[in-house]
Design a protein that fits this description.
The complex is a heterodimer of chains A (229) and B (472). With 229 residues, chain A is of the alpha/beta class. In chain A, 29% of the residues lie in helices and 23% in strands. With 472 residues, chain B is α+β, with helices and mostly antiparallel strands. In chain B, the strands form five sheets. In chain B, strands 8, 9, 10, 11 and 12 form a five-stranded antiparallel β-sheet that branches. The N and C termini of chain B lie far apart (79 Å). The relative contact order of chain B is 0.07. Classes of the chains: A alpha/beta (229), B alpha+beta (472). Chains A and B meet through helix 3, strand 5, helix 4, strand 6 and helix 5 of A and helix 15, strand 13, strand 14, strand 15 and strand 16 of B.
Chain lengths: 229, 472
């Protein structure tokens, strides 16, 4: 038995995990230590696609990208918002220290324009981060975007619905985002290039509404209760 | 003073021929459409010549392209020739319909001799695929007469010029018919004969005007010329004999016009950020296309790429008979900054302009927006979107910190469907807008919904509950 195994190993027909050398790819820190640890100490991959899968807005998905947005916009890199579902609120962004001169909002009318715009943004050296909310994307399109992302060296995050988790995707990083308890954001790594998926962590996001300092949420007696009662 | 005269024997023909990729037989027909005035070499080779009746010409060459002569158009074309000649000579006079006069005596030292001036002008003509007969004379009229007979020589010798003039027949010297006949009756046949007459006799026997004309040719009488001033705009036109149906066909003439624009901008040391392209159709209103770049630009290639993108997005509405490209807005050129001596730091400003211009050309200028906060208490008015501009200044953080706001604002408040599970802060009362009729009177709360979303909800005066934003 062991002879057969030895032969196999000598022939190099079996790939051995222990010899796996970690390839270092350019990354950008997420700004959250907990998440960085789960991502192998790296962060958002540069020059590759990332996907965030979530169903509802308002669970802290933008705050996940906010440290990166702050850092890039202050380094004079442009941040593109492509077809966002709601209005990125300028006073909130300004308050968080994002340089609004570097934020550009783009709305496209059809899928062809969307892909063309995204590709052009990805290939440009001025782009730091592209956040895109695609409508429908075929795997072929994602492949095309992945190639464009490789041509540049910026971070591209696609926000998609969670039902796409089943669909396979060439994106380098896929995160499944759900709301956790205490206003935290539960991040489930579905795919990570060069490593195993399945890491799981919960990122505290209470600070997005100034709630971090409270041990337990102080419940304000809302007028709603009066009305309901 | 020395004058250089350019006589364009078939300017209209040259103008039209250079906008065409394939050279086919072409003729310019007089206004009434009866006679051929000018014929291109291809047409001449097939037997068409100037002065021929149009019917004869068509039966000789059935596929003959025809252009009707138009004085206004000719004047415009002549002026555009003056534009480029102005780069070489300062004092230019337009001699409609087909001549340009330039003072070159003062340029000899600059160019290093008359031959160099001559060569420069010839080169300019060649670059623009124009045919012209050049001549030099010591007076404006002598230069003109010699140029029109095609005997121009590069010489500043007055005696030689006068000898050339002397051999000219009276008809070539452009005396009017009546004077011509009278001179011939006296027995004079060449200009030399007229020159040798005493001035007093000439005035008495013929007319003082004839004397003045002769003296102006000889240079014994002042012949002041008003210098032409170039316009502060750029305008180039291309006319087509056959209508162009595909936008692809417009790119060829555009390429030439844009490279002239580039040359013009380089010469002015200026840039531009907006071009106006007007496409004329036979039966429809002209199409006006405004091409904007997001920053100063002068390269023909960059403009052509933007125009190509526009053509891809908007196909032609109708076949095009002529196109005009004009630039009215000029910007001072900035020295490339942010690049050190060794070129190690990359200047991204240009890449930024290229990207934004490309996106704007395809998506339209209104699809790209920049956000900024506004000083208003009402949340829907506390932000604004404007067209993208490269700003140099750095926004200073405002001294009083902005209140906590959600990162997502809904396009309009949405009714709250369910009771929130948790309330965090509030109420924050926002009341205002009584001054412009957009009254807002609301109490805002931060609440968590059962789905885990953090919402910015409010109750208005009518006791309705709405979601206005998400803490994304």
């Amino acid at each position: 038995m062991s002879e057969i195994l030895n032969t196999l190993m000598q022939d190099a027909r079996v790939w051995q995990g222990q010899h796996h050398t970690r390839t270092s790819r350019p990354t950008e820190s997420t700004g959250y230590q907990v998440l960085d640890n789960q991502l192998g100490g790296a962060g958002w991959p540069r020059g590759a696609l990332s996907e965030c899968l979530l169903d509802e807005p308002g669970i802290g998905e933008l705050h996940l990208l906010l440290p990166l947005m702050q850092r890039l916009s202050q380094a004079e890199k442009t941040v593109f918002w492509l077809n966002p579902p709601h209005i990125p609120y300028a006073p909130a962004l300004a308050r968080e220290g994002v340089n609004l001169d570097q934020v550009i909002l783009i709305n496209t009318e059809d899928d062809g324009d969307f892909l063309w715009t995204l590709e052009n943004c990805l290939r440009s050296p001025v782009t730091g981060l592209v956040m895109a909310w695609p409508g429908k994307l075929a795997t072929r399109d994602i492949r095309r975007l992945q190639l464009a992302a490789e041509a540049g060296s910026n971070v591209c995050v696609l926000f998609r619905e969670r039902r796409h988790a089943e669909q396979n995707s060439p994106a380098a990083l896929r995160l499944d985002l759900t709301a956790g308890s205490q206003q935290a954001l539960k991040v489930n790594v579905l795919k990570r290039r060069g490593s195993w998926p399945g890491q799981y962590c919960s990122v505290a996001m209470g600070h997005r509404a100034d709630l971090a300092f409270r041990e337990a949420p102080r419940v304000v007696q809302g007028p709603w209760a009066d009305k309901a009662g | 003073m020395l004058w250089l005269y350019l006589h364009f024997p078939h300017l209209l023909l040259d103008h039209i021929r250079r906008s065409h990729e394939n050279q086919s037989a072409l003729a310019v027909v007089e206004g009434s459409g009866q006679k051929v005035i000018q014929a291109c070499p291809e047409a001449c080779a097939q037997g068409v010549h100037a002065g021929m009746r149009l019917k004869t010409a068509i039966s000789l060459v059935p596929e003959l392209g025809m252009v009707r002569a138009d004085h206004q158009q000719e004047a415009r074309i002549l002026e555009s020739q003056a534009c480029w000649l102005y780069r070489y000579a300062a004092h230019i006079v337009l001699v409609p319909p087909d001549g340009l006069l330039a003072e070159v005596g003062s340029l000899q030292r600059l160019y290093g001799g008359l031959a160099a001036v001559w060569q420069t002008v010839e080169q300019g003509l060649e670059e623009r695929q124009l045919n012209a007969w050049i001549a030099i004379g010591h007076t404006p009229l002598s230069a003109r007469l010699i140029a029109r007979t095609g005997k121009g020589e590069c010489t500043a010798d007055k005696g030689h010029i006068l000898r050339t003039l002397g051999q000219m027949s009276l008809l070539a010297a452009e005396f009017d018919d009546k004077t011509c006949t009278r001179l011939q009756r006296i027995g004079l046949n060449t200009l030399d004969d007229v020159f040798s007459l005493p001035a007093g006799e000439l005035a008495r026997r013929l007319s003082p005007e004839t004397l003045a004309y002769v003296q102006k040719i000889q240079g014994n009488r002042a012949d002041p010329q008003t210098p032409w001033q170039p316009p502060h705009t750029f305008r180039q036109q291309a006319d087509f004999v056959q209508e162009i149906e595909q936008s692809q066909g417009l790119l060829f003439p555009l390429q030439r016009i844009l490279s002239e624009l580039e040359e013009d901008l380089c010469w002015r040391q200026q840039d531009t950020d907006s071009l106006l392209l007007v496409l004329r159709h036979r039966h429809q209103e002209p199409t006006r296309i405004r091409v904007r770049t997001s920053g100063p630009e002068h390269r023909a290639e960059a403009f052509l790429n933007l125009i190509r993108l526009r053509f891809e997005q908007h196909p032609l509405r109708a076949p095009v008979i002529s196109l005009v490209l004009s630039v009215k807005r000029f910007l001072g050129r900035e020295a490339a900054s942010g690049q050190d001596l060794l070129g190690e730091t990359q200047d991204l400003s240009e890449a930024w302009h290229t990207l934004i211009s490309r996106l704007q050309a395809r998506l339209g200028e209104h699809s790209l927006r920049q956000l900024s906060p506004q000083a208003d208490h009402r949340p829907e008015r506390a932000w604004s979107a404007s067209e993208v501009q490269r700003k140099k200044h750095i926004c200073l953080s405002s001294p009083n910190p902005l209140p906590r706001r959600p990162l997502w604002l809904l396009k309009g408040p949405q009714p709250l469907a369910e009771a929130p599970t948790m309330w965090f802060s509030g109420p924050e009362r926002i009341s205002g807008g009584w001054w412009d009729g957009q009254r807002v009177h609301r109490d805002y709360y931060i609440a968590e919904l059962s789905t885990g979303q953090l919402a910015w909800v409010f109750r208005d005066v009518r006791d309705g509950w709405f979601v206005h934003g998400w803490f994304g």
